[in-house]
Design goal:
The complex is a heterodimer of chains A (170) and B (276). Chain A is mostly helical and 170 residues long. Chain A contains 7 helices and no strands. Chain A has a single domain, classed as Arp2/3 complex 21 kDa subunit ARPC3 (Orthogonal Bundle). Helix content of chain A is 71%, strand content 0%. In chain A, helix 1 runs parallel beside helix 3 and helix 3 runs antiparallel to helix 4. The longest helix of chain A is centred in the C-terminal third of the chain and has 29 residues. The relative contact order of chain A is 0.13. Chain B has 276 residues and is an alpha+beta fold. Chain B folds into 2 domains: 127 residues, Rod shape-determining protein MreC, domain 1 (Thrombin, subunit H), CATH 2.40.10; 77 residues, Rod shape-determining protein MreC, domain 2 (Thrombin, subunit H). Chain B is 30% helix and 30% strand. In chain B, strand 1 and strand 2 form a beta hairpin. Chain B is globular, with a radius of gyration of 23 Å. The chains are: A mainly alpha (170), B alpha+beta (276).
Chain lengths: 170, 276
């Protein structure tokens, strides 16, 4: 339990710094902005209280906002994603439900489950984020392209990180 | 009362979600106004210091290019000195005139954080109120304009880049003296736009655009860019003009913050006139 908390605290700071110092400086084009920090919310254990997930997502989003001068943009998107985490988990739950000791990883639930879990939530997060940033629908298609391409980029990074850390975490 | 408590305990999750989301929206909307909280932006001490340390490390990777730029600028400056020697009648003493009051003061600062890929881009500089930086000062570099100071802490300041959807900078097409407003449409970090330029002017691709005299923030005549393309608006006698910015926003390292000493006076006078 304690080691779980410490692990998540370390993950919080690592992902935050990785996001603001490295990923925010990737300037391939305006269409590719990966937001790997959402992995923190996705990897929280199943038994963590629902309200705590919301609050942690808010704190994470606000920290990213603080470094990127975006007010509450990331906080809004992260909180929405944390809120939708519960329904999405319920929707794709395996037949005998989740074990409290399990964590949402690719090793425990397999590629298909993990892909739908991460894919849906990352896409919704990016959708909310980019449309909120633009704040109007006149550039609907170009914004949608940014959402799709950035989601794919973020997903790639998440899968790479999963395979990268798979040995040390299992 | 009991019903209320029952209601709160049953729907606390949804209420908490609404609360946090509203708070985020509040922060986001307030961020778009000029008075932003000093706590939650990158000019605060924690973010500023982390960025400065980080840029201290990454600066080494760009040293070669920066050296080259400095060498070019040095050469340019030396040329100017030689010109002075070649024409003794243009000695500085003749220029230094007690009738002319100094209007602009330049403060040099280093860019410790920068973004170009968002709709609202900001820079963080390692100079703040202790170095004489105030809100709404202009920021320029050797190649052109950079932005406007929006927030100041003791040792850092946060600058609204020209690459910001709220950018409105008075500019001037040098060859005709035609005044216009520069805006950024959010396409990429190399181009900005001017709207409603009269088509009778006879624009040519490559015409120079400089900052205009109507700006109380930017000094007049600073390079902005060159006209890259212009399109006629259907059924109208105006052009929409695309400007290639002369500043390379991906390579910024040292910039100048410009203090207009007569700005307060101008603003006060204009305010008084508005009240009539």
């Amino acid at each position: 339990m304690i080691s779980e908390v410490i692990k998540n605290v370390i993950r919080f700071f690592f992902l935050l710094l990785f996001q603001v110092l490295i990923l925010n400086n990737i300037q391939l084009s305006g269409y590719l902005n990966p937001f790997l920090y959402v992995l923190f919310i996705l990897m929280l254990p199943f038994q963590s209280p629902k309200w705590l997930v919301l609050v942690l997502a808010f704190v994470m989003g606000l920290s990213v906002d603080m470094f990127s001068d975006t007010g509450g943009l990331h906080a809004a998107a992260s909180v929405l994603m944390a809120f939708l985490r519960q329904p999405v988990l319920k929707l794709i739950s395996p037949r005998d439900g989740y074990d409290v000791v399990q964590r949402p990883t690719i090793q425990q639930f397999g590629f298909g489950w993990f892909f739908s879990y991460v894919g849906v939530l990352v896409f919704l997060h990016h959708l909310w984020l980019f449309y909120l940033e633009v704040f109007h629908f006149t550039e609907f298609l170009s914004t949608f392209l940014r959402v799709v391409l950035s989601s794919l980029f973020t997903l790639t990074l998440i899968f790479v990180s999963q395979f990268f850390f798979s040995n040390s975490k299992s | 009362m009991r019903n209320l408590i029952l209601f709160l305990t049953r729907y606390y999750y949804f209420i908490l979600f609404l609360l946090l989301e509203t708070l985020s929206f509040f922060l986001l909307i307030r961020n778009n106004h000029f008075q932003r909280s000093h706590f939650l932006n990158s000019s605060n001490a924690i973010a500023g210091n982390i960025y400065e340390t980080y840029s201290g490390i990454t600066d080494y990777f760009g040293l070669e290019e920066k050296n080259e730029k400095l060498a070019v600028e040095n050469a340019w400056l030396r040329n100017q000195i030689r010109q002075y020697y070649a024409h003794p009648e243009r000695s500085p003493i003749a220029v230094r005139d007690s009738v002319h009051k100094q209007q602009y003061i330049y403060v040099s600062a280093k860019v410790v954080n920068n973004s170009t890929n968002r709709r609202t881009n900001y820079l963080t500089l390692n100079a703040g109120s202790r170095q004489g930086i105030r809100k709404e000062m202009a920021v320029t570099c050797s190649e052109g304009i950079v932005g406007i100071v929006r927030d100041v802490s003791d040792n850092f300041c946060s600058v609204m880049s020209v690459l910001h959807e709220n950018t409105r900078i008075p500019v001037n097409i040098k060859r005709f003296g035609e005044n216009s407003i520069l805006i950024w449409g959010g396409e990429d970090e190399w181009h900005a736009k001017m709207e409603r330029i009269p088509s009778h002017l006879g624009l040519v691709k490559g015409d120079t655009v400089v900052t205009g005299a109507y700006s109380s923030i930017f000094p007049e005549g600073i390079m902005v860019g060159v006209i890259e393309d212009f399109k006629k608006i259907a059924g109208n006698t105006f052009y929409n003009v695309t400007v290639k910015l002369s500043t390379d926003f991906n390579q910024l390292s040292y910039v100048n913050v410009v203090n207009n000493l007569t700005r307060e006076e101008q603003i006060q006078l204009e305010k008084a006139a508005q009240h009539d």
